[in-house]
Amino acid sequence: MADGSGSAPGPDAPPPGPVGRSRGRRSMYRQNLAVAEAKRILRSTGRFVALSCLLLAAGSVLLMYTPGGPTGTAARIATGVVAAAAVVAAALWWVRGWPRERTSVAFVLAAEVGHGIVLFCCADPVVSLLAATWFFLLGDYLTFAHGRRALVAHCVWVKANLLFYGVRALLEPGADVPFVVFLVVGLTATLIVTRLFGQVFSDALRSDSARSAELAHRDPMTQLLNRRGLEAAAPRVFAQARSERAVIAVFLVDIDRFKVVNDRHGHDAGDAVLRLLAARLDASVRKYGLVARTGGEEFVVLDRVHADGIASMAERLRAVSHHPDDPVPVTVSVGAVGLAGDDFPSADPGVLLTNLIIRADTAMYAAKQRGGDQVVLDLPRTAALERTDGGATMARSPDEIFDSVMAARSGRDRRAERRPDQGS
Fold first, then answer.
1. Same-domain status, 249 and 362
2. Which of 44, 60, 106, 322 is 20 to 30 A from residue 175's alpha carbon, by CA?
3. Would you state the pLDDT for residue 181?
4. Which run of H or E residues covers position 377?
């Protein structure tokens, strides 16, 4: 993985793996939330958790007025504290929505311990068993958010509580043994067996959903993101750049005279060129950057960079695209555009991405008009021409780029102008 300054892979570098470049394996929690966000149910499920916290608070208060519930000052104070904490948690969930993973784990542990305290405060163990049904809500949360391992640990904790209060109930004078046994068995089936079955079913559905989403967001030839995948992943990069006040850069990389490659060497060779270029671009971008194939021989790179690093990164992308030992040497034209995090408009991320790609595409076309194998930067103000080894980096204002491109097109269709057999 390149860190932004590493060398390019050699001509025999393998293409990206079956799911493109590894960005680090996401935890089950983040995977599950990503699926929920894709289904547009993330916000509503957060509100459901808030309501569940309110139900737990209400149940704890009602227990204090239930025969066999918490008795004594200490027990009632402890139950009241748990109820108050549940109300605070409900407010946070309603206002802030889903937290970070560590915060979620802390919430689960607090809920497990808090409800355990409420059960322990009940004077009658049978009431404790009946109140244990509230563990069902926590099991739902773990099934949805944290997955199988967390649910198994929860089920062990629930079973320990059922056995503890079941034994206590059996040791009570005049205990109704059949009823207590029936209650423990029934709660085991409800709180544990059905939860585990639901987890298996949920895992199967999520796996299919995640696999379908992955396939829908990947280019089958290069295994890079496609346009849909880029649009889905870009908001995260935009949000990070905005929070860090970094510069977001979009680079549009287009192979020069690609039609000649297909005509002279065949489509199999052309496909090999695309896969090799995809691997090199992918390896040249930092861990959290994005690389996508958005057209036949067109690639988009999206990454956070230093304010003065756009030109150097664009030149690096141009340079890694060519190697003297390649079976079919090619060159590329690169258009680049940068936007500071402080200047981000409040527009929809999809609209922002589209506008940046259009500007980068216009700059790339200007590079092709100069013979290709060049970089053109779309900068807010006019800058001097910078010469680099093997190519040229042009830094010009958006108006200059637009005017020159429109003059070059002379009313002709853009795609016709870029046909390789016309020397673009």
1. yes
2. 60
3. 96
4. strand 375-378
Q: Are residues 359 and 396 in the same domain?
A: yes
Does 288 reside within a domain?
yes
Among the candidates 215, 241, 266, a domain finishes at 215
Please choose, from the candidates 349, 103, 97, 338, the residue with its C-alpha nearest in 3D space to the C-alpha of residue 236. Answer: 349
Domain extent for 177: 28-215
Contacts of 162 (CB under 8 A, 6+ apart): 129, 132, 184, 187, 188, 191
- Joined together, the tokens standing for residue 259 give 């039609």
Specify the residue for token string 């204090």.
Answer: 64
Neighbouring residues of 189: CB distance < 8 A, sequence distance ≥ 6: none
- What's the pLDDT at 362? 92
The SS3 assignment for 320 reads helix
* Residues involved in catalysis: 297
Q: CA angle at residue 308 from 10 to 249, to 5 degrees? A: 70
Residue 305 to residue 300: CA distance in whole angstroms: 15
pLDDT averaged per 10 residues, the chain (length 424) = 41 38 60 75 91 94 93 94 96 93 94 95 95 92 88 95 96 93 95 87 68 73 88 83 82 91 88 91 85 91 85 91 85 90 65 88 92 83 36 48 46 41 39
Q: Answer yes or no: pTM beyond 0.90.
A: no
Q: 65 and 160 in one domain?
A: yes
Indicate the DSSP class of residue 26: P
| Domain total of the chain | 2
The answer to whether the beta carbons of residues 271 and 293 sit under 8 Å apart is no
Coil vs helix vs strand at 247 = strand
- Report how far residue 96's alpha carbon sits from residue 90's, in angstroms, rounded to the nearest whole number: 10
Phi/psi at 347 (5° precision): -70, 165
Rg of the chain over Cα atoms, rounded to whole angstroms, equals 30
The answer to whether residues 139 and 130 touch, using CB atoms and an 8 Å cutoff, is no
291 in Cβ contact with 7 (< 8 Å): no
Extract long-range pairs of 159-164: CB within 8 Å, 24+ residues apart.
159/188, 159/192, 161/116, 161/119, 161/128, 161/132, 161/135, 162/129, 162/132, 162/187, 162/188, 162/191
Collect all residues with Cβ–Cβ distance below 8 Å to 166 and sequence separation of at least 6.
125, 129, 180, 181, 183, 184
Same-domain status, 77 and 135: yes
